[in-house]
Amino acid sequence: MAESLAFSKTADRKIVYAEIAPQIESLVAGETDLVANLANVTAVLKEAFGFFWVGFYLKKEGQLVLSAFQGPLACTRIDFGRGVCGHAYQTRATVIVPDVDAFPGHIACSSSARSEIVVPIFDRTGEVFGVLDVDSDRPGDFSETDAAGLEKIVKIIEGII
Fold first, then answer.
1. How confident is the model at residue 2 (pLDDT cuts 50, 70, 90)?
2. Of 14, 73, 118, 120, which residue is the least packed, with the fewest Cβ within 10 Å?
3. Is the CA virtual torsion 124, 30, 67, 73 positive or negative?
4. H/E/C letters for each residue in the chain?
5. Do residues 48 and 7 touch, judged by C-beta distance below 8 A?
6. Which distant-in-sequence residues (6+ apart) come within 8 Å of 139 by Cβ?
7. pLDDT, tens digit, for every residue of 8-21?
8. Which CATH class, in words, describes the domain spanning 13-158?
9. How far, in Å, CA of 58 to CA of 47, rounded?
């Protein structure tokens, strides 16, 4: 298990994603508890990028239910198809929202969130298992670089579920 995290202090997110991905892979290797692994992944993303909020919602009881996260209080349950998380779940695709106030049906868990990216997580059968949700307190903070980096991290998670 990794005890520390090392990454470049650079504004180039592509470099940071490339540096943290193998560390995340090492961190979750051999650990069988999913929540522990998800908690550590959120901690790594929060530390590496300083995102406002990072967390997971997992499919349970016909909804997306809050799991491990870093940041202020969050919505506990989200209906499929509702908000950015529900939309990513339903469309089975990564969603980048530069301005959450302009997203139809956005769920405002925090008025400080300005932009958001959500990546679906698939189980071994190809069903959506949950989503990785990342919020920023800056508008337009996410790009295709973030989509590619977070999708790579989600692939690591998919390997342990």
1. low
2. 73
3. negative
4. CCCCCCCCCCCCHHHHHHHHHHHHHHHHCCCCCHHHHHHHHHHHHHHHHCCCEEEEEEEECCEEEEEEEECCCCCCEECCCCHHHHHHHHHCCCEEECCHHHCCCCCCCCCCCCEEEEEEEECCCCCEEEEEEEEECCCCCCCHHHHHHHHHHHHHHHCCC
5. yes
6. 98, 99, 114, 115
7. 888 899 999 999 99
8. alpha beta
9. 22
The CA distance from 1 to 30, in Å, is 8
What's the confidence (pLDDT) of residue 147?
Answer: 98
Rounded distance, CA 4 to CA 26, Å?
Answer: 11
CA distance 26 to 22: 6
> What does the block give as tokens for 16?
């940071």
Q: Kindly list the distances between the CA atom of residue 150 and the CA atoms of 11, 63, 79, 117, 146, in Å, as whole numbers in the listed order.
A: 16, 22, 23, 9, 6
